[in-house]
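Model the whole thing, not chain by chain.
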Amino acid sequence: MAMSRAVKGLLIDLSGTVHIEDRPTESAVEALVRLHRSKLPYLFVSNTSKESRKHILERLLRAGFDDSTVDVEKILTSLSAADLKLRTVNQPTFPLISPHSMVELPTQLMHEAKDFSQKCVLVGLAPDKFTYANMNYAFQLLSSPNSTLMALNKGRFHATSSGLSLGPGPFVEALEFATGHKAVVIGKPSPDFFQRGAQYLSLDLSECAMIGDDVIDDVVGALDSGVGFGVLVKTGKYRTGDEQRLNKDRFGPNRVRVADSFASFVDELIDT
Amino acid sequence: MTSHSTLNVSKQLGSVKAVLCDIHGVLFDDGDHDQFPIPGSVHALNRLSTSGKVPFRLVSNESACTPDTVFKKFQKLKVDVEKSQIFVTVPAAYSVIKERHLRFLDLRPFVLVHKNVQHCFDDLDQSNPNCVLLGDAVDNFHYDSLNEAFRVLMSSPQTQLFALGQGKFYRKGGTEELCLDVGPFTKALEFATGKEAEIIGKPSKTYFGAALKDMRVDASEAVMIGDDIVNDVGGAQSCGMKGVLVRTGKYRPSDEDHPTVQPDLIVDNFAQFIDILFKDG
């Protein structure tokens, strides 16, 4: 397989690819051990906007992943990437994000009172916060000039144990439509995010492969950003027919792969 | 930039045989319990009504009320209109779903609308929903309700999303406060599902068409006056009507430089429009 020679590092999606909530995907635990032993560099790249990296690590350990194979240093999330961006914008920010994701962000900038002091609205996955009153307040903030709409990601939906559930994307889209703003998107499929991931692995984007269950945000987004290879897995939020949206004509068949699961891809990659 | 002028008005509007008039932002601003008539509007509407010269319909995307509730409010304010002259989206949506259901499409809606009109859909089968109906639900819009609507839409490729209008926001009566309308939440579900909503309300041709048919006039003989540059003015022009923009309600000065919609006429308010209409004979 030509890919195995060209791939010098892996960017690996977490939710839906390596685990679904507290359970690993098929044979993912063993696959990760094999990957670790192969010495191929890898980094978990997650759009989660609900959990801190420490929370994610704890979840992975609960799911049975070996502690030699997972570490906070091996995890890049849109939250950890947002920290730098927020410090750059440096404005009081109305946070539509979950309480325990606040730890990874500059708390001095997060301001929840509805006093119209905020110049920035930050949107993540925060089901409890998506009330009409909060959405309306965010809309009113964004209706004034020089305001910024920042999105940890624009995920459309994701798989949960109770079924498919809305991500933050639709709520960001609602605010964009109402105000004419174009959100600054921190996580996948933003090119900056993939670039940061490659940097963490000390590799060029073109030497990396991105593997994930979201055909648009993980795979096409990565390929569009210059990531060398995109691998779609048929777990998590994958739905039959998603491979039709891989645009092989644009990227060339060598850069695109479809695998049954993370484990089956790792097996292929390492065995060749 | 156009402004009124008695010399040019027949060029701008042609011969006007019927008037379609938006309610909120033209006649009233509206809050939860109060009506705030826009100065001069009640008098102007009564002038139109009593003259009998030009038939009119009030065509609104209001999705938190019924013709009956609007009629009662109008009566209180001594506005001279008939219930049958009031077009709002709830009865239109009910008809659409009921008629298609009767044609063996078996439509069972998940209804996410304003609590005041929830009961209007009670006699539709809402068990095991296979379509979604969205209105200006205000506090009923939250993650859980939208997630439920999302799941209904994802249950099959055939499930359809209906939206009562597509307005971005409206002005809460008596205040400067802008409030999110149904449009952004429709867009949220369209984005999540990849589906396109069917709009029941302005700027749908079917919706305007129902009012025109009721007056037995052709679109080319009618004028629509509203505060929403896209849904009132643009929507009317797309049907072949003339579109008049008012500088009240949700109007913003940037509307006069809209990239795609150029109103046939812009007036300060509804009263000015009626002045022009009657000055012209």
